[in-house]
# Entry
Amino acid sequence: MIGPHGENLTFLLGLPRSGTTLLSVMLDKHPDVCCPPEPWLMLAVEALGKVSHRHPADSQVLGGALAEFLGDDVAKHVGRAAAIEAYNRKLAEAGRSWFVDKTPRYYLILPYLQNLFPAAKFVWLQRFPLAIAASYKSTWGMDLPKLLSMDIDNWAYYDLIVGPRRLLDFFRQTSGAAYWLKYEDLVESPEPAVQALIAWIGLPPAINLSEFDASGAVAHAYAGDKKIVGTHRPHKDSVNAWESAFNKDELQVLLDAIGADVFRDSGYSAVLDRLAERGVYDRGSDVTAGYVAKAEAALAHRWADLNSAASAQAMLATAAELPGARPDPLASALAKVGKQGSTLEAVREEHATLKETYNKLHDDHRVEVESLQEQLGTARQEQFELYEVYSKVLIDRETWQKQATYLQQVILGLNEPTFKKLVDRGMKLAEAWVVGRPAPVEKHKTPLPRMTVVTPCFNSIGTIAQTIESVRAQHYPDLEYIVVDGGSTDGTLELLQKYAEGNVIQKVISEPDQGMYDAIRKGFAVATGQILCYLNADDLFEPGGLMRVGQYFNTHPRVHLIYHEDTVEFNGWKFPNSRQVYCDTIDLMKGYMLFQDGVFFRRGLYDVIGGASADLRYAGDYDLWLRMSRTTRFVRRPEHNSCFRVRYGQLSGDMEKYTAEQALVRDRFWKSLPPIAVKRLKAIRFLTTLKNIVHLLKPRRLFFPMDVTNLPPPPMPEPKLAPGEPKCPLTGLPPDRLLLSTPDTRFGEQTMTYVYYCSASGVAMAYPPMSEQELTKLYEKHYSDHDAKVMEPPINTYSPYKKWFGGHRVDKFLRRNLLRKKWRERVSWTDPTVEELLGLVKRRFPTHGKKLRFLDVGCFEGELLDLLRTKTDWQTCGLDPNSKAVAVAQGKGHQVWQATAEDAPYVVPGDAQFDIIYLGQTIEHLNDPIKVLGRLRMLLAPGGAIVLSTPNLDSKQIDLFGPTWAHWHMPYHRMLYSPRSMKLLAGKVEMTLDKCVTHSNPYWSVMSLWLNQFGLMGAVPHGKNPPPVLCSEAVDLTIYSKFFYNWRGRGDYLYAMLSPKEAL
Amino acid sequence: MSLPQSLPRISIVTPCYNHAQYIKWTVRSVLLQRYPNLEYIFMDGGSTDGTQDIVAPYCDRFAHYVSERDKGQSDAIHRGFQKATGDIMAYLNSDDMLAPGALHYVAEFFDKNPDIDFIYSHRCTVDSVNKALWYWILPKHNNYLMMRWDLIPQETAFWRRSLFEKAGNIDPQYRFAMDYDLFVRYMMEGKLKRVNRFLGCFRQHDAAKTSLLLETVGKREIEQVWRKFGLQNTKLDPIRSKVFFYGAMRHGCQYAQSGQKLPGSLPGIGWDYDTLWSGLLNEDKLPPK
# Structure
């Protein structure tokens, strides 16, 4: 229990935000100590008898009467009794014996406390003032430097300026009854610090005070630091937080206000050096005194406000008398002014006496002064002369300097032209340092010429939409599309308007006309393009066609007309049209027909001949070509740029009228020719003939025309319009030739696939494009179906292609008569993959070397891995997307991962590398071979190689079987390659084609033979027994290929070995 | 599978602070090298833009992963190198990338050329969406030139541990020219070589430190390096500097125009860096360990 003089009572002092709550929580854990969060009791007790001047009962009378009644003595006793009663009640409630009153702002009434409880003990938890200021900022958002600099009267202001000073003064005076603990020491070593404090207070020691749970009392208390609730032991996080909390200017204000003496007296002098490093210096005690005086004055006025006016003076006086308190700044200031008033008088007197003395002295020394003034005058004169000399020297110096700089520049070559020369020379030197001669810069590209396409139409709602879409899909940069309508009544016009709004068609002309050629004439009359062509309302452009035409005209300025072969679309099939020769006027006179949709000419040519003849109805194009051929030489281009769509019944009726009008046109033209022109034409005729002989003697590879004797071809569903266009992966351009169209000849799916060919890279590709999902569905449907049947073509249907009879007469003769029975017996029907593979890699990887690491991409059920295991000592692994097949292969004990070739880098462990990665008949199934090869390349060990096998587009068997070659296998094969395109493909993935060999195999030959027997409408799946006749023929073919074709790179399929480019 | 022939250990340090947009590409370009003996040290400076979340799936691949406030990029690299144990060392900033196969190339190069201590390559620059922008084609290595001008492409530099031990760690007091300071020290101690290919790519974007600081801090720190090593500049040096710098740029332009292709790049400009990586950078999967 607390005694009358404050026995068993401790005051825990400190400024707000200096960690007193932490210490109180730790002390509260002691079994004898009761330390509730912040009672603030003594501030209220001290105010006993003081009345706010705003009290509604006349504050002056109230204050005076109370002061008289209580007097100092009574108030003191009453306060003490009240406080002891309150403390003891709390102690009784808590069942403890020692009370610790922790209230931060007791620094205001320190003398009063000591006066009241002389036996009480005082503990000061001191914290570094700047850290307190930082905590004000972070906890309460209070920007102290700003408050200080704006001089705002605030309690935080006294806390930081007056608080430390009063506490310091107090602890200096009462060193015995006070304990001085530093916050920094407390958090550095909490347990020893708090134990020492307990010992000093005189309490029995208790263990483990530094681990606490403050979630109870403090969390629900009105005052106190709530941050402590989540904390369970002291930490040092906020000791140095002040450094980042303030900038340099703010720190300066804080240092000025708090005062360097406080820092020094409280043992933080080391920090002053750190502040000085940041440019914050002690600006002397005068600056600090200003702040302190302001704070003390403001504080005194607050006290005065609290006390009624009558007792204010007394309170102020009392405050001034209390030990540790400063004298009232107001009073002292007044006193000072009074003192200064008296001093002023004294100064005035002194001044008067001094003036007298000066006058006296002045009179005494007048003579001396005059002589001195004279001397001064002469000195000034001299100085002036000297100055003139000096300025002359200065000017001279400037001129000299200019000259010197000029000379320096001349010598060093720093003036403008020389500088440039030096830079240029240096550039050349730098060029010489660079390794590798820079390649010639690409030719400046001229933009493509403006092109005008005119479409005449009349009631063609059924076909014109596709025509317009095909023009739109060209993406030609500078295209003008004009549609001339002859007054359609079937809704064509509305469709055209819709496209015109979308700016696909630039101009729509609609009025009745005299026929197609009148419409074309009208269209060309308003055309603005340099290249002209016209496209009938049911024809199409092939992908990328206009671009190729524009580029050709761009690079051949002297060519005025080019013509192409076109493609023919008929019942869903698409064929290349028959081959064209180099033709001139005489050919045309003889009735040679150009494919109108493939003719493009320059505007100048059209203007020179006077435009199309409006009076013709059918043979207007023939008339145009005839007259144009008089003016210019025609150029044939071996590309497919347009497509002619045939509707059944379209041709037969019009053909007779066409021929009749053709004869008319020919006569008219013949009569218009002067005789000399005829002679000249005949004279140069032989040149064209020669050219044609050469042209027609060239082998017709990859040219599969339709069988015109079997029209119409069997109807097939047209492939749905695909969004993209076929694009060659190697050149990135649309392919320029159509090879063939084919249904699925292995499983009998009724889907059409068009096969295009890019002559720049030698790759054949399938169209329409198929997504991975569609392909996967197809594979799942057919590839694992072992019961797929051989499908003979339905009765009365026939292949739309002409029959391929298995080669030239000479070939057949040789095959039948030169081969011996011994050779035939030697041909093996077993799977030759392993032999072919080992034969390819044996030079590069000698078998007696270290164990090769081998990855089979697309290993299926691991057949190849089985064989390799028996024949080699390689470490073999596999990769396949088919989960069932993977399970089978793993059952055989192979290391097989389940993933697509594209995902190989994600399933193969990071440290696994392979010497050989093998793609057996896989690459042709991939939509994006470059991506897959690029990824597989990352799995190669140094010195490793990718080996792949794929059908050979240069195969001799294509010449023998045409569209029924078994390896077309559309739509499953997406791309087919030749050795040439393999080389390009290797370059695309930074590899080189080390070796490329081709083989033929009786199995594949018999598949082709069998399919050839059926024609394209049949289907021949794998694993069936072909007729024996075909088998023996296939054996012949294999031997024949081996003798004449395999070694020339024209075998049925190819093996390529790609290895990374050596970069070292 | 058995491990391939013993490859030297390569240590790569990536300091990162708030580069969430690019960090995935950077980390993947290192981890997808398929280099078995890689020690990848990731030093995150307490990023606040979700970098940690993006990096989280790759954390188990890092030899060390530190995410705490640091005193800046150079400090992070310094501490990273203190942890590194590799025979070959490098650091890769959090917006740059390596070319596919770069680490295997470097390992093989150091194996075949025991006299070379430090290699670097030409510089290829991409923009914020990985499109190739421009190239520097550098001349053969020359100590005089490279000491005076900060033109070694840092993202392509690899050096041996012996050189690191001789010439020391990165100096954490620099904010900008820490690589320049380091490389000058290396040039004084070891033998350097410029290889004729691209080993990585450098990203130019608005927030890149190189573009932000070059004019102010960069200039000052470069001058500081000159003073520190007593690199005396003659009066012709501004010209030579121009010739050197523009020469590299000009040859880069010619390289791009000519359609030539050195390893580690595709012809011309405007191609996607991910194409060079066969689309691996933009995906999320990783090879099993």
Q: What stands out?
A: Chain A touches chain B through 47 residues (CB under 8 Å).
